[in-house]
Amino acid sequence: MHSFWQSTLLAPDSLPWADAQLPDQFTRFRQQVEAAAIQPAAPLPEPALPPLPPAARQLIQPLAAMDYPATDPRSSFPFPDAAFAGSETAALAHLAQYLQRGLPHSYKATRNGLHGIDYSSKFSPWLACGSLSARLVLQQLHAFETEHGHSDSSYWLWFELLWRDYFKLLQRQHGRRLYHPGGLPQRASPTHNPAAFQRWMAGQTGHALIDAGMRELAATGYLGNRMRQIVASYLIHELQCDWRAGAAWFEACLLDYDCSQNQGNWLYLAGLGTDPRGGRRFNPDKQAAEYDADGHYRQLWSQP
Ligand SMILES: Cc1cc2nc3c(=O)[nH]c(=O)nc-3n(C[C@H](O)[C@H](O)[C@H](O)COP(=O)(O)OP(=O)(O)OC[C@H]3O[C@@H](n4cnc5c(N)ncnc54)[C@H](O)[C@@H]3O)c2cc1C
Questions:
Q1: Residue 120, ligand 1, Cβ within 6 A
Q2: Tens digits of per-residue pLDDT, 95-143?
Q3: Ligand 1 site, residue 260, Cβ cutoff 6 A
Q4: What is the DSSP string of 33-98?
Q5: Residue-range definition of the domain harbouring residue 253
């Protein structure tokens, strides 16, 4: 058996610092990577593997025949559809069509969208379960840029994939310290309000945007990055609940659940990670006015 490090875009041993000296801010991390022009290695060739033994094939057959729930037409990641299936074949087809349609050139302008398939790449569920390699995504993105030009927008996909690396490397550096109730600075345990937390999970806080997001999450297992930030900030900063309870609910719901990404983002919003600004508080009314000005998203998810 051979094992290969493949969790991150950039191999840890290609970075100019030891594991324990990861820059404590994402921006410094990115700037140092870019200043040193560090690039991921090319993806490894497909290994030649013997066929699965019949007993193993029998074990996985029931999975292929599994019944999925009907697709919710409102879903931004309709996983019961074949095009969004949890396989490498579906992942590669999705990546190919994303590039063919030139979507990297509009990514930066649309990435904060709330509803629809094309506003962001939707790579995350496949990245999280290992059906898609971040290195392969970048290799194909570079090929796309060679053919169709480089833009600030196509650069932004690299920028976001670096966030993914940063949180994975943070996990490598700090391990279980990321799971301390008071986060990396080991502050006092956060406050909690179980009744408010129940209402948040059920999409019954009384704030239309928050409730819409929580209904989408529970019904589809996916939520765009902007809505994740808004609902997480609301739980931590408005409802004064324990960020770990929110992270656990995301873990229970998300199709793209990845412990480093989930933990890293929750700590960042709670101000208990490495963010120098000490937490991110999003005003939900302002966010609704900016990202859902016509109320379409709130209307779409006004019912579970
Ligand atoms: C509270 C909270 C919890 C989150 N939990 C998870 C999680 O469990 N699993 C997960 O994969 N992502 C998580 N994210 C990050 C981000 O929301 C998702 O990766 C993104 O919404 C996935 O959709 P996409 O692939 O269309 O993203 P795109 O916008 O198309 O981004 C492309 C890729 O960049 C990476 N990326 C983008 N934004 C982030 C980010 N904020 N942090 C780290 N990587 C990012 C992802 O790998 C993503 O697939 C979380 C964010 C928040 C605020």
A1: yes
A2: 999 999 999 999 999 999 999 999 999 999 999 999 999 999 999 999 9
A3: no
A4: HHHTT--PPPPPPPP--PPPPHHHHHHHHHHHTPPPPPPPTT-SS-TTSGGG-SSHHHHHHHHHHH
A5: 194-300
